[in-house]
Amino acid sequence: MQTVSDPRCICCLRGILPTISRKWAICIISLLGHSGQMRFNEIVEHCGHISPKTLSEILKDLLDAGLVERKSFHEIPPRVEYSLTEDGKSLREALVPLLKWAKDRNQRYNYSLFASCLQAPDP
Amino acid sequence: MQTVSDPRCICCLRGILPTISRKWAICIISLLGHSGQMRFNEIVEHCGHISPKTLSEILKDLLDAGLVERKSFHEIPPRVEYSLTEDGKSLREALVPLLKWAKDRNQRYNYSLFASCLQAPDP
DNA sequence: CCGTATCCAGCGGGATACTG
DNA sequence: CAGTATCCCGCTGGATACGG
Prior knowledge:
globular; DNA-binding
């Protein structure tokens, strides 16, 4: 058993887990964090196989959760840019140990899961 | 864009995400980490509303992933105990920053999601 | 006690076509 | 360009009954 005071108590996650465990969600957070801001179709292109319906749903989830910000420039053709809120950025940082764990683990097991990686250089 | 060298590159998660994002998975990892070892029906009782079929599936996932260990004592009636492997334990620790982030965030938004918490004291 | 077998409902996500 | 509308499929997870 565990109490709320235990730093490893998982109950705090209940609210946000359905959002961030959705397919593509962490990917998009990572992408936005890295690029600063992106347009709808930019995200589509970088994800590769996400349908517009799915992307629109997930962005809505992330917007509602306050993790992502949406800026609409009232132009024609329309331009909309998505970026991380401060909350989203801190989430991204909070995920680092998990990513590190996964990376170490992959190497230990000689997994080669990197083929599907996004490959452009850091800015 | 991002590279594999970026500690925030999410591609490493691809292998494990389907496993740990399943309903109950993180809960069970947290539970086992806290109790040391648990029997099948103990887990059921602590989760409250998990069906045996679901639990058995998730345990299988976690076993295959090498996060959980299964010890069967060949007795009658049967006794089986589940516990975290070293890998599972390190995953649990890697989740701490995420949990901390979620906790801070809940407090910031005055969420009261703690009602559903596991409530026995720490050992 | 520790599961598996079976059946079923809901929904997450893909493909595609369409609109403002 | 930035989505929405529709349709459809497969998977996940619940309930229940049963087996070793």
